[in-house]
Design goal:
Layout: H1 37-41, E1 88-92, E2 98-102, E3 157-160, E4 169-172, E5 175-179, H2 180-191, E6 195-199, E7 202-206, E8 211-215, E9 220-223, E10 226-229, E11 235-237, E12 240-244, H3 245-256, E13 269-274, H4 290-307, E14 311-314, H5 324-332, E15 337-345, E16 354-359, H6 385-402, E17 407-413, H7 416-419, E18 425-432, H8 436-442, H9 445-465, H10 467-471
Helix pairs in contact: 3-6, 4-9, 6-9
């Protein structure tokens, strides 16, 4: 990662894409836009066929193989309970009484019934982010005391709460999780799910409109084959698949229901930020420096956006140095706007791929260790969490669905240009300049124009997806 952290942490090194090209000319045959769920909402996304019926075995998805150049994720597997001291389960009944039972021993506790009606929307109870001159925000989702930067759960006990408005909440290690059944029931009127399956550690929730795939113990989530990185690993308890309540509020719901995003404001202007500049050259690529490629990409995106009727403000239009705070100030001073920051990645010679970054939600850790660590108190940019992830989805899905890029995922970090931004904003990494074939693409006008067109269309579709929410303002 070539963007800087507020704490001035070193540059990230991440990996991989297999993108074979015979020449610098971009193969426009790769630019076949595929219809599907994200096409309807954000103008992108890959369409796929739901899993086979229950009578047919479903092959396990192939595991993702990391290249040697990519640093290992900081997540760890949830430790299994020891046999000498099994964790206790507290089941709270609707009458307020509690019954304690030991795991792995018979119990007569009744199973939770599936709600017959659509549950009430689950609320994000995290408080609003404090202004710069106010006290820090405090949220209900707290980090484990023994590891503030870990994004895994270390449960000592599990508490199953009674259904609240149809939502079944399970507390593990003090953190709220929501059962997959609750998620299915809530979104079923819109998507008409026909598949709900847990096979081994792999989980599917699907219909003709939407296929969601997850794996127990993993933070990877595939929605119509677009990759998202969750804030916390998927868990399981008593045969139930569990997603963290924070991920439901800050990722799943804004992606599935963009028209219901709160605080969405109409925009007609895009602030386009070319990363680095001047004495800050950024990553040194095979065919040039990141600062130059970022400026050329930003200018190409500017053209694409203006052709689609948007006003565009450039943070820099030439090779000059601009502080990170100065970039944020331009975005914050521009009314009715969103913010797009363009960078290119660096890593080993084999590292390549496209990734998009949104701000880390409060009470969650960044996707990578050098991405700012654990966001304990929240920052200014967290006011736009839902719009941030929706914008990231629109751009990332549209680019990935049109071109044969390796999908490195929609990720989270506290990059300085995002933490203080009062507008919806993302940071887009357009490829690895340290990869010879990919840098050859990055250096070509055709590549930048094609990708810029996809980004321009994504911004149009993002605004359409949020029209209902914007109208409420």
């Amino acid at each position: 990662m070539t963007s800087e952290l507020h704490s001035k942490l070193p540059q990230a090194v991440i990996a991989t894409l297999v993108f074979a090209l015979a020449s610098v000319s971009f193969d426009t045959a790769c630019a076949e836009e595929k219809p599907g769920f994200f096409k309807k909402l954000f103008g992108g996304g890959k369409e796929e066929t739901p899993p086979a019926p229950e009578t047919k075995p479903v092959p396990k998805p192939a595991p993702t193989v990391k290249p040697k150049s990519e640093p290992a994720k900081t997540t760890t597997k949830t430790p299994a309970p020891t046999t000498s001291r099994p964790p206790r389960v507290i089941i709270t009944t609707t009458g307020g009484t509690k019954k304690k039972v030991e795991l792995n021993k018979p119990t007569t506790a009744p199973k939770a019934e599936t709600p017959k009606t659509q549950p009430e929307p689950i609320r994000d109870v995290t408080k609003s982010v404090a202004k710069d001159n106010e006290a820090p925000m405090k949220g209900e989702f707290k980090a484990d005391d023994d590891d503030k930067t870990a994004s895994t759960v270390k449960p000592d006990a599990v508490t199953v709460l009674p259904a609240n408005g149809g939502w079944e909440i399970v507390k593990i290690g003090g953190r709220d999780y929501v059962t997959a059944e609750s998620i299915r029931n809530f979104y079923n009127p819109v998507y008409g799910f026909t598949t709900f399956r847990l096979q081994g550690n792999h989980f599917w929730l699907g219909s003709s409109k939407l296929i969601l795939k997850a794996q127990i113990g993993s933070q990877d989530l595939l929605i119509n084959n677009i990759k998202f990185i969750l804030s916390f690993p998927v868990q399981s308890y008593n045969g139930k698949v569990l997603f963290s309540r924070l991920d439901l509020c800050k990722l799943i719901d804004p992606v599935l229901y963009p028209s219901h995003i709160q605080n969405a404001e109409y925009f007609d202007t895009v602030v386009v930020d070319a990363g680095h500049g001047g004495h800050d050259a950024g990553a040194r690529g095979v065919y040039g420096y990141e600062k130059d490629f970022a400026l050329k990409m930003a200018m190409s995106v500017r053209t694409a956006l203006m052709q689609r009727g948007f006003k565009v403000i450039m943070t820099r239009a030439d090779d000059r140095f601009l502080t990170l705070g100065g970039r944020v100030a331009i975005a914050n001073q521009t009314p009715k706007s969103i913010f797009l920051s363009f960078h290119f990645n660096s890593g080993g010679s084999a590292a390549s791929g496209i990734e998009t970054w949104a701000l880390t939600p409060q009470s969650a850790a960044a996707t990578i260790p050098r991405g700012g660590g654990y966001n304990v108190n929240g920052v200014t940019g967290n006011k736009q969490d839902s719009a941030n992830i929706a914008l990231a989805t629109a751009v990332h899905a549209n680019v990935i669905s049109r071109f044969k890029f390796v999908d490195r995922g929609i990720k989270r970090a506290q990059w300085s240009v995002l933490t203080g931004c009062k507008r919806p904003g993302i940071l887009f990494e357009g490829g690895f300049v340290t990869n010879a074939k990919e840098c050859l693409l990055v250096a070509s006008d055709t590549y930048r124009q094609q990708v810029s067109a996809a980004i321009g269309d994504a911004v149009v579709n993002y605004r359409k997806a949020l029209e209902t929410a914007m109208a409420k303002r």
